[in-house]
Specification:
single chain, alpha/beta, Metallo-beta-lactamase, Chain A, Rossmann fold, Ubiquitin-like (UB roll), 3 domains, eight-stranded mixed beta sheet, six-stranded mixed beta sheet, 32% helix, 24% strand
Length: 554
């Protein structure tokens, strides 16, 4: 009996969450990877810098991987590439700007000479049994593409992040004709962006923000400071255009934004009129009515330029009464508190702060319900997988598809690691592969797990207490100590009595263990830890981390 061919779609990230997008498409013994992004750590991930997908499945099948296809240059789609390409030597395919941003990231990570190919919308490449077409879409960064992946069993369409913008700031419009053409020929499965599925109607055109900028620039009598996402190239262009029209110079603050503008300008994706861009030192000395500062920090990130300005902690720029601060972004879920805090601090310093999208200073780069319906109606897939969204978004997108006539049993709301398998006979869930979070802490990749995070949480909540003592190797008696050092638990001066009681309890515990001829260090430490934990809980209702240190002498 001949072997039955099958296609597997395996999301390794991006489902049930916003960020760390990564999807594997497998046909028999060949695979392609779509995107490799990062996510920002949740509040309880103390000390963690970023989170990337667990791609151990790819490493286990490294010989099968034909290439990585990147839809656009945002961090949640390219941020994991420096880690993945260290472990996996495979070709990367991306548009010019996307590849420019990827190469800048790889350079920082000291990765050179990768096998990279520039592609353009409507290009087709062949990777093993896969034929991949790149399709132009609108997003908040130029050069974003969707993918049509043609396989012997049918075509899979992955939208990437998209919206329908009929008047984009620059670049191509969404290639509606191509999507409709694919729909006419027949599409096996559609994977579509779910970010804005909860929003009715259409997403406004990016160009509308430009008009609002111009009005705000004309109205402002003093300096203008604008915070936006560093990679929102269209937004950066509109700020520069509005500044030029109102005779203001622009200074850029924040490393990531300087990098993006440098790369985008070199590649021709941002037009900067001569003399518009100046150094920060120059902008500080200009009259307020001629100055505009473009900065990072739209999400209230602790170390970002805007946050440091709000806290009066920035080396070069001080917020002055009369400054107009425009936050041209919506808070990402989870960042609301830090954004609100930054806004409050800016108001305290006398700035006029313009925020929230209803003031017209921000539009999303993702399609709302009507655009998602349009995509479904153009492509008319046999099967549907909502992607790029938290779980409730995936569910709502599935319901939307059902309203448009896609049978419920033909829609898969999956988790990361789920294998969705297609054969000539139909589609089904065919198990799971390893998928999850890899935590990056400084230079450490994946070396911080749940136990370390649990310890960090305990340290952050109740502090640490270290008990140091010296015992005689021959007699087992305590010859020095116990001494107690504490950090983040209690104020020592006010708790001397309690700490003296603790020392006495340790002495009693050690004497009892000596009587019973217990010499095992692990047992000694365990008993001391247990005694102190009980004592401090009774006295304070807190459980500090207790670290006994025992030294031996002759």
């Amino acid at each position: 009996m001949p072997k039955e061919h099958k296609i597997q779609i395996i999301p390794l990230g991006g489902l049930g969450e916003i960020g760390k997008n990564m999807t594997v498409i497998r046909y028999d013994n060949q695979m392609i990877v779509i995107d490799a992004g990062l996510a920002f750590p949740e509040d309880e991930m103390l000390g963690i810098d970023i989170v990337i997908p667990d791609y151990s499945y790819l490493l286990e099948h490294r010989d099968m991987v034909q290439g990585i296809l990147v839809t656009h240059g945002h961090e949640d789609h390219i941020g994991a590439l420096p880690y993945l390409l260290k472990d996996l030597d495979v070709p990367v395919f991306a548009t010019r700007l996307t590849l420019g941003l990827i190469q800048a990231k790889l350079k920082e990570a000291n990765i050179e000479n990768i096998n990279a190919t520039v592609v353009r919308p409507r290009d087709t490449i062949k990777l093993g049994n896969f034929k991949v077409e790149f399709i132009s879409v609108n997003h908040s960064i130029p050069d974003a593409v969707a993918l049509a992946i043609h396989t012997p069993l049918g075509t899979i369409v992955h939208t990437g992040d998209f919206k329908v913008d009929h008047t984009p700031v620059m670049g191509d419009r969404i290639d509606i004709h191509k999507f409709a053409e694919l729909g006419d020929k027949g599409v096996l499965c559609l994977m579509s962006d779910s970010t804005n599925v909860e929003r009715p109607g259409f997403t406004m055109s990016e160009r509308s923000v430009g008009y609002m900028f111009e009005d705000a620039f004309k109205a402002a009598k003093d300096r203008i400071i604008i915070a936006s996402f560093a990679t929102n190239v269209h937004r950066l262009q509109q700020v520069i255009t509005a500044a030029h029209k109102t005779n203001r110079k622009v200074a850029v603050v924040g490393r990531s934004m300087i990098n993006t503008i440098t790369i985008a300008a070199e590649l021709g994706y941002i037009e900067i009129p001569e003399g518009t861009l100046v150094d920060v030192d120059e902008i500080v000395n200009l009259p307020g009515s001629q100055a505009c500062i473009l900065t990072t920090g739209s999400q209230g990130e602790p170390m970002s330029a805007l946050t440091r300005m709000a806290m009066s902690d920035h080396r070069r720029i001080e917020i002055q009464p009369g400054d107009t601060v425009i936050i041209s972004a919506n808070p990402i879920p989870g960042n609301e508190k830090s954004v609100s805090r930054t806004i409050d601090l800016l108001f305290k310093l006398g700035a006029n702060v313009i925020y929230e999208s209803f003031q017209g200073m921000h539009v999303s780069g993702h399609g709302s319900q009507e655009e998602l319906k349009l995509m479904l109606n153009m492509v008319r897939p046999q099967y549907f997988i909502p992607v790029h969204g938290e779980y409730r978004m995936l569910i709502k997108h599935a319901r939307l598809a059902e309203q448009l006539g896609i049978a419920r049993e033909n829609t898969f709301v999956a988790d990361n690691g789920t294998i969705i398998e297609f054969t000539r006979h139909g589609a089904s869930i065919a198990g799971k592969v390893q998928a999850g979070k890899v935590l990056i802490d400084g230079l450490g990749v994946g070396d911080v797990g749940n136990i370390v995070l649990r310890d960090r949480k305990q340290l952050s909540q109740d502090g640490i207490l270290i008990v140091v003592m010296t015992i005689s190797r021959t007699t087992g008696a305590v010859v020095a100590g116990p001494d107690v050092v504490t950090r983040g638990f209690v104020y020592v001066r006010e708790s001397e009595t309690m700490l003296e009681e603790a020392k006495e309890k340790v002495r009693q515990t050690m004497a009892k263990l000596k009587e019973n001829n217990v010499t095992e260090w692990a047992v000694l430490k365990g008993q001391v830890r247990e005694t102190l934990s009980k004592h401090f809980y009774e006295k304070t209702r807190r459980r500090p981390m207790i670290l006994p240190i025992i030294q031996e002498v002759e």
